[in-house]
Amino acid sequence: REEIESQRPLKGKFDGFYLEADGLLRNRGWIYVPRDGGLRQDILEEAHRAPYSAHPG
Fold first, then answer.
1. Which residues, in sequence order, are CB contacts of 27 under 8 Å at separation 6+?
2. d(CA 25, CA 23)
3. pLDDT exceeds 70 at position 8
4. 43: closest CA among 31, 28, 25, 26?
5. What's the pLDDT score for residue 3?
6. What is the mean pLDDT of residues 12-37?
7. Contact, 12 vs 6, CB < 8 A?
8. Nearest to residue 27, comparing CAs of 16, 40, 35?
9. Domain range list for the chain
10. pLDDT at 11
C-alpha cells in the first residue's frame, strides 16, 4: 500500500490511527466514523437504499 504523505500519526489512546488531510480517521485501512451526530446513520441509510444492496431472491 502506498503511504499518503498527508497522513499524520496519532499517539496515546489513538496509537496506530492516522488523520488524513481530508479529515478521515484511518486504522489498518479502515475508515472510522464517529458515533455521535447523524453521519453514521446517514451512511447506513444510504447503503440500505442502494439497489445493489438488496438480497436477490
1. 16, 17, 18
2. 6
3. yes
4. 31
5. 52
6. 86
7. no
8. 16
9. 8-53
10. 82
Query: Who's near 31: CB < 8 A, 6+ residues apart?
Result: 24, 25
DSSP labels for 3-30? Answer: PPTT-EE--GGGTT-EE-TTS-EEETTE
Provide the grid cell at 1. Answer: 500500500
47, 39 Cβ separation under 8 angstroms: no
Judge whether 23 and 32 are in contact, CB under 8 Å.
no
Which residue in this structure is represented by grid cell 486504522? Answer: 27
The secondary structure element, H or E, covering residue 49 is helix 39-49
Single-letter amino acid code for the residue at 35: R
